[in-house]
TrEMBL record:
GO biological process, one term: proteolysis
Catalytic machinery residues: 60 (charge relay system), 95 (charge relay system), 269 (charge relay system)
The name this protein goes by in its record: Serine protease
Pfam families (UniProt xref): Peptidase_S8
Annotated family: Belongs to the peptidase S8 family.
GO molecular function list: serine-type endopeptidase activity
Signal peptide: 1-26
Domain named Peptidase S8/S53: residues: 51-317
Alphabetical keyword list: Hydrolase, Membrane, Protease, Serine protease, Signal, Transmembrane, Transmembrane helix
Transmembrane segments: 370-393
SUPFAM superfamilies: Subtilisin-like
Region spans: Disordered: 333-356
């Protein structure tokens, strides 16, 4: 998860803790995805939809369009961080590439059976750069300059205007801004599904009752995603609060990195990307389905439901792509919308519960293993209260940075 923090606060992008790994064979990569493919019931879902015709905007650190598992599917959009790095500095694009591959990776080689296969391999990706990774030289400038304060809000509006059907936000911050709230209202009014990470502060408690809320995941109308472990229980780092709508696997998730590398990591970031892929499958089959009904299909089709049907740990359960598509088919005849556009112009800022200048700056990361380049190949009361966060791996570079789970 890339995290944003208040201007003037001690915030930083926590980089990846990398471990050298032996070169992996191409079939090792796809083999490493088997558990996720099985959990999400993707083979069954792909009989109905592969995400063709859908554009998923990835608001992140940038996507490598030349990775063999994404080539031909990525359109590089605007860079809202421009000017933060010194001239000529190439973007790292690690986190963004990783997320994009989980959403729309199409593999490579004979029959595309090698490399990463995303949840919606037929979808296209619009890369919108709204964050810097902590190793980039402009990191400090990005987090201190006033002109970068509302990059997320601007990125959302840009993605909507560029034709995005789904927006993935594996990013988080502690405070919301009016501009972000207005941008989210604008996106929903245009029928765009927003998916965000619930956060990786699961070991922190507010009044001993729940983990902190994170934005943009905690905004009404955003699908907030938590992460599960290998047993499909809440991962220890995953935030638990009433914003969580659904959950998805978030531990030991295989993905792609820049330069034809492959990674294994954990976090709500990965879980969020997987859910965005399922949303893309739904929008491909039912392009006119409103965001609230897509959220309903995701929740109603979930498996591993908690006792009573809902809890703050995994929401309504673990997303299942095949079942979500079945639920979507039942909802497809409905015309209800819930955009709020009738009440107020979505372009006009609205009062936020907690407003303040916020900056996207932190990639929440746990363990991440880099694989060498392979040359051979809310929820509790309303489905509109959705939230999500993204997590990769954490490298604590400074002792004064608060722990992110």
């Amino acid at each position: 998860m890339l995290r944003a923090g208040r201007r003037g606060a001690a915030v930083a992008l926590i980089g990846a803790l990398l471990f050298a790994a032996p070169a992996a064979r191409a079939d090792d990569v796809r083999g490493g995805q088997k558990a996720v493919i099985r959990t999400l019931a993707l083979p069954e879902a792909w009989r109905t939809s592969t995400g063709a015709g859908v554009t998923v905007a990835v608001l992140d650190s940038g996507v490598d369009p030349r990775h063999r598992d994404l080539a031909g599917s990525v359109r590089e959009g605007r860079d809202f961080t421009a000017g933060a790095n010194p001239p000529g500095t190439p973007p790292s694009r690690l986190h963004g590439t990783y997320m994009a591959s989980l959403i729309a990776g199409h593999g490579h080689g004979p029959g595309r059976k090698r490399g990463i296969i995303g949840v919606a391999p037929g979808a296209d990706v619009l890369s919108v750069r709204v964050i810097l990774e902590d190793e980039e030289p402009g990191f400090r400038a990005f987090n201190s300059a006033e002109r970068f304060e509302n990059v997320v809000a601007r990125g959302i509006r840009y993605a909507v205007d560029e034709g995005a059907d789904v927006i993935n936000m594996s990013i988080s911050k502690e405070l919301a801004t009016r501009e972000e709230r207005a941008a989210i209202r604008y996106a929903i009014s245009k029928g765009v599904v927003l998916v965000a990470a619930a956060g990786n502060d699961g070991d922190r408690r507010i009044d001993g009752e729940f983990a902190p809320y994170s934005y943009p995941a905690a905004f009404p109308g955003v699908v907030s995603v938590g992460a599960t472990d290998r047993r499909l229980r809440r991962a220890s780092f995953s935030n638990w609060n009433s914003s969580v709508l659904v959950a998805a696997p978030g531990v030991d998730i295989m993905g792609a990195g820049p330069g034809d590398e492959y990674w294994v990591g954990r976090g709500t970031s990965q879980a969020t990307a997987l859910v965005s892929g399922v949303a893309a499958l739904i929008k491909s089959k039912y392009p006119d389905m409103s965001p609230p009904l897509v959220a309903r299909a995701l929740a109603a089709g979930a498996t591993d439901r908690p006792p009573g049907g809902y809890d703050t740990a995994t929401g309504f359960g673990v997303v299942n792509a095949a079942r979500a598509l079945t639920e979507a088919s039942r909802l497809a005849g409905h015309t209800e919308t819930a955009t709020g556009a009738q009440a107020q112009d979505p372009a006009r800022p609205v009062a936020a519960g907690r407003a303040g200048p916020v900056k996207v700056v932190q990639r929440d990361e746990r363990r991440v293993t880099v694989y060498a380049a392979i040359a051979g190949g809310a929820a509790a009361g309303s489905l509109l209260a959705l939230t999500v966060i993204f997590v990769l791996v954490r490298r604590v570079r400074r002792a004064h940075i608060s722990q992110q789970a």
